[in-house]
Write a structure and sequence with these properties.
The protein has 188 residues and is α+β, with helices and mostly antiparallel strands. It has a five-stranded mixed β-sheet. It has a four-stranded antiparallel β-sheet with strand order 2-1-4-7.
Amino acid sequence: MSLSTRVIAAVGAVVVIGAGTVGLSIAHASDQGKPAEPTATLVVGRSSIHSGPFGVSCYNDGKPLDEAAQTKCQESAAKAREAGTLPSLDVKVGDRIGVGVDPKVADKGWFAFTDGGQQQRATLASTRVGSTFSGLLPASGLLAATEKTTVTVVEANEKTGDILGVWYFQLKNKDAAGEQQPAAQQSQ
């Protein structure tokens, strides 16, 4: 290969790499105009996990979910719970639990609850507007008697009552009856 052929090959490579970079930059920039799905955050003690709304049927770009979408959302979450695929955190009875939401969710209104507690449903956050965090509550009053407790976070327009988005999380109760203990602890 002569010097001029090497130079031409190098220039060609730079042009191809440059074109690829420009193309990627344009694609990235055009993506920036799309509204991002809001997230909810589950906090247990010092651990946290965040997630977008649960599936397509649980969020409609900030527009109200109709009855059919709400039903499909609940059915999808029930299947995911059974499959163990909901975003989850381990919890012990002595932990404290809280929920946080994006500011744009807080502006419209939201509430959160679990399928545990004394009444088979425990409130983590009653309807809130403007506040992005529920505060930390004792896990003992929020957990189901079983190994798994579902946390549901709902964005709802306080004025109209419309459901705008739903997030699901799962708490794995490490103190639940039937939870397997390490062999060293079983022999004590």
